[in-house]
């Protein structure tokens, strides 16, 4: 159902060697599909890092990992009302969602052209997906991430209208709720005050890695299977 990428030539550090006090685990490698799939399966995700004036790929595994339990999502009454105003689509405008998430208008943006291209390649192989909020035929919010077995690793979200990104998140949780929901992992990298209001919790790295290992053995959610 997912097209297997070419194996990565890179070897990531073993879990036992990771600094227990540092979110940054490794530097270097590339953003090829095989490298990304391997990294996410190990509990890592990439972000650009600038050292001594040179930009490199940094591979992160937060010491305290942000996770959203599927039964812990908090949907306010006003958000529930807002949900009626949007149409939800999956994978109908993946590249546009990533471009919006990487818009130069956003403060502290980190999604460079290389990252946009990398996740586009991953999407075309069936490993990266977008959940989108539309209104009146316009893309007004959404999120994207990587889906491997029972893991959905959320990368970024955006909104052009109030509540649009939250509506996409609620839709994602609904898509992940099936007979395996108790074992699925919805990873959001770091807990922020905003995400905490939606039910995101912080879990120690070791606990996250244990849950990740179990989740990878699960089937993909139906919404993210290329055969429908």
UniProtKB/TrEMBL annotation:
Its EC number is 2.3.2.6. The keyword Acyltransferase applies. One of its GO terms (molecular function) is leucyl-tRNA--protein transferase activity. One of its GO terms (biological process) is protein catabolic process. It catalyses: N-terminal L-lysyl-[protein] + L-leucyl-tRNA(Leu) = N-terminal L-leucyl-L-lysyl-[protein] + tRNA(Leu) + H(+); L-phenylalanyl-tRNA(Phe) + an N-terminal L-alpha-aminoacyl-[protein] = an N-terminal L-phenylalanyl-L-alpha-aminoacyl-[protein] + tRNA(Phe); N-terminal L-arginyl-[protein] + L-leucyl-tRNA(Leu) = N-terminal L-leucyl-L-arginyl-[protein] + tRNA(Leu) + H(+). GO terms for cellular component: cytoplasm. Belongs to the L/F-transferase family. HAMAP family: Leu_Phe_trans. This is Leucyl/phenylalanyl-tRNA--protein transferase. It comes from Nocardioides cavernae. The gene is aat.
């Amino acid at each position: 159902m997912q097209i297997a990428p070419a194996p990565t030539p890179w070897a990531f550090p073993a879990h036992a060697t990771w600094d227990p006090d540092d979110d940054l685990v490794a530097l270097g490698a590339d953003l090829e599909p095989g490298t990304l799939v391997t990294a996410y399966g190990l509990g890592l995700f990439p972000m650009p890092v600038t050292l001594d004036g040179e930009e490199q790929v940094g591979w992160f595994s937060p010491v305290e990992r942000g996770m959203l339990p599927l039964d812990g999502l908090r949907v306010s009454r006003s958000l529930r009302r807002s949900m009626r105003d949007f149409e939800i689509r999956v994978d109908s405008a993946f590249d546009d969602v990533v471009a919006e998430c990487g818009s130069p208008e956003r403060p502290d943006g980190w999604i460079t052209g290389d990252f946009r291209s990398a996740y586009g390649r991953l999407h075309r192989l069936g490993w990266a997906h977008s959940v989108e909020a539309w209104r009146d035929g316009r893309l007004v919010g959404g999120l994207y991430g990587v889906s491997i077995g029972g893991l959905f690793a959320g990368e970024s979200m955006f909104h052009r209208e109030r509540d649009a990104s939250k509506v996409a998140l609620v839709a994602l949780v609904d898509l992940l709720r099936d007979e395996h929901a108790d074992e699925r992992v919805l990873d959001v990298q770091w807990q922020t005050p905003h995400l905490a209001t939606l039910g995101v919790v912080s879990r120690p790295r070791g606990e996250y890695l244990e849950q990740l290992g179990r989740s990878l053995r699960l089937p993909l959610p139906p919404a993210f299977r290329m055969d429908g």
